[in-house]
Design brief:
11 strands; 5-stranded mixed β-sheet; 327 residues; globular; Jelly Rolls; alpha+beta; Arc Repressor Mutant, subunit A; disordered C terminus; 6-stranded mixed β-sheet
Length: 327
Amino acid sequence: MDALSEALRSVRMTGAIFLDAEFTAPWSFRSPRAQQAAPVVAPGTEQLIIYHLVIEGMAWVKMAGEPDLPVEAGEIVIIPHGEEHLFGNGTPDTVFDGGATLHRHVAGELSSLRWGGGGVRTKFVCGFMGCERQAESLFLAGLPTTIKINIRGDASGAWLENSIRYLVSEGQLHQPGRNILLSKMAEALFIETLRCYIKLLPPEATGWLAGARDPIAGAALALLHRRPAEHWTIDRLAGDIGTSRSVLSDRFTRYLGNPPLTYLARWRMQLASRMLQTTKATVLQVGLAVGYESEAAFVRAFKREFGLPPARYRKSLTESTIQNLSS
């Protein structure tokens, strides 16, 4: 069983390539903060993950409070939590505003830019993944501020790079279906980077992605995400995996920080929150859909997690949306 695949199926995600660039040193590109950009470029999402793939040359990621990070040809750098940062080579007089390229993406355009001081050339593409807040509490939680992976060291990564280079080429500019292909490639590139990152984690690593790699914790995660509404017990979960309840509890808690049923309860609340926000299902229907046998039990659990009963929580979301639209 594949925990990462099951988790990705349960989280809405949308990807895009928004910039095809050829910059010459000195140059610097400012990437906006994800929380500011997400509502504009990926409506309906709450988290924006920016990434840069260097095709030729090299660049540096510069972020407040972090050492400068070199990125060479064939490497992709992901900013999992969406911090504002600079991406460049050298110190130019003018910093290019990446927000403008994101706004062009909203209009359905891929920005192809040639810019810089005339020195050493760097070719790169920039993409993003828009996702729900559930992604932050799952596989993004505990990740560092940057993740850098050499995708040319893996056959599937090299294939993705070549496919993206082909799709952003001038000859494909007006070809039908190009934008949807770029979107799917952006999603695939992000997932491939996560897969490579999991492989490179040290044995002592903890967190969601490390747990997904472990045969016992990963199998439990896959089952809980595939069938969250089932009446799970530790005994039943351990039996389905083929291990003892003590080994399952110890291994799961080591990686995830909580035992399996505590994790399941919180995941059910995340699913319920999404249903309240995106569907017209009644409170009882939502509770039943995420594994509660009565409305009262669901309301108590939901209020414990979010501080509000489900009906008031849904109303607060509606009022917040109206306020944002009118501001």
